[in-house]
Structure formats: C-alpha cells, structure tokens
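It is worth pausing here to work through a concrete case rather than discussing structure prediction in the abstract. The textbook approach is simple: state the sequence, then state the predicted structure, then interpret. We follow exactly that order.
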Amino acid sequence: MKKYDIYGIGNALVDMEFEVKDSFFKDHSIDKGRMTLVEEERQDYLLKALGDLPLKRQCGGSAANTVIAVAQMGGKCFYSCKVANDATGDFYADDLKESGVDSNLVAKRPPGTTGKCLVMVTPDAERTMNTFLGITSTFSEAELNEAAMKDSKYLYIEGYLVASPTGQKAAIAARELAEKNGIKTAPTFSDPAMVQFFGDGMKNMIGPKGVDLLFANEDEALSFAGSKNLLEAREKLKNVARTFVITRGENGAIIFDGETYIDIEAFKVKAVDSNGAGDMFAGAFLYAITQGHTYASAGKLASAAASKVVSQYGPRLKWHETQEVLRHIFPQR
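Step two, the predicted structure:
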C-alpha cells in the first residue's frame, strides 16, 4: 500500500489577499483576471498602495492549495517546493505542516527571498494575481524526493512551473520518473497565460505518452487545443490525456473518464471570491478517486467543495468545512 495518495510539485508562495475595486487596476496598470509575474519592487509598490492589512495570509501556490485540500479531506500528501531561510519561509513551512502535508522543507533552507502572491479580489468575485516568485523561480530537480514520489499513487504537477526553465525541467523529470515507476500523472494547466505563452513547454511537460489525468478550465482547454469550440477542444484533449476534467465556473464541469463524458452541475451559491476554486476542485476530485470513488462521484464532491470556496474569501476551506462537504456528498462514508 502506498504511503501517499498525492505527491505534488509546484511553486511555494505566501498568499496575501485584498479586496479591491476595478478602479485600482486602472490606476496601477494591472491586467484584471490574470496572474502576472512581477519584480519584488513592483509588488512592494502595490502593497504600499493597498495600505490595509490583507484579508488572509497563508501558505499557497496552486498545487499547494490542492494537496492541502486532499489532506483536509483525509488523504495523505507530500509536497515538494522551495522557500528561503527567511521569516516568510518559516511561516510557509509551519503552515504547510499544520495543514497535515509532509514536505521536503525539513532540511536547512537556502538564503534568499520566499515568493509572495498578491491576490486582489473585486466585487464580481474575480481574482487577479501579481506574483513575485522569489526563490521558487529556481525550483529544480534538487527539490524532488524520489522516495516519496515512488510511494505515492499520483503525481500532481502545477502548470505554473512551465514559466521557469529549472521548474519545467524538474516537472519533466518528475513525470518521467512517475511513468517509469507506474505512478499516475496528473498535471494542471493552472492559468490561461501559461498555455498561451508557454504552449510548447506545456506539451513537453505532458510528454509524448500523454498523462493519466489532466485538469484545465474552459479557457485553458480551448487555448491548448487551438479551438473556439469546446466540443472540438475536448476531443483534442484525448490525444494528450487518458482522462481529464474541464472546469467551467458557474456552468459546472465536463469530465472524461476514459470512456464517456460526464456533465457535472455547479452548486448554486453567491460567489464572492473565485480564488482557489480550481485548486479545490482538483483536490477534492483527487481525494475521491484515490479513495475508490467513481469519476462521477468525484466530480460531484469537487463541485460542492469548489462552490463552498467561492462563497467566501480565500483559496482554502477550514478542516471542519471540508468535513461538512464530505458528509453532504458521501453521508455513508
């Protein structure tokens, strides 16, 4: 029996979330609804412009949010990432440990600056991110833990790694190691910009054999497939993924389980913050399938968990909230 359900790799960022109005983007030349990489000085400037304390501060990064969701639901996870030997890195390592996730952050950490993600949420619930990667931009094969990966059911790969030469190389190495050892592979595209500007790198991360499970939102799926038609795009995804999930916000999700398409309805809620919805969907889905549930049941759990996330601020739920979602979907578990 495997020790871990999910072995994740991705960027390590301390998320700082603020409420803003659309005018803030215009005043400071920010592209709304996108993740934009910025230098530390630019991020510091924006933080000073925001002034007030953030709504929340917690360890994050897309894949980190996903593996934490799996752990909160009762799964076992390991996360490989890179933070510096600074106060922000201490906070990140402690928060990850308190969330029940094992990691590679037990050894002495290198000097540098831990990455931070400025998350700005507007009244329409859309999130915009300005990210200073810091030391996570040098995430590499050195941060991989081969023993932990071999003792896992799934390798989960964050798509944002494609933007870093060393991160992309590490993602490819991890996927090749997983394939060699019979570990299922599950990358996520993470953001439309990653597909748009790093399309070839994303294909390299997926590899010539394709992956076992792919996560994408609708915009990412269309962009990767080079299509404006979702029906056409999902057929093209079959060429690179044996199974996949396409999330569609308030329109639910489309799942391909290897044989048939499954339509998943969205739970109707008042959205206040879309930050973390896709990460939570992936986490709940991975938890369910690693515990033996069907893709249809996993999709229902994931939809319920994602709807809970968007109905409040922040990319994660508290432990008791994940348990409430589990009991609602799987009352006999």
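Step three, interpretation. The first strand starts at residue 4 and ends at 9. Residues 165-180 form the longest helix (16 residues).
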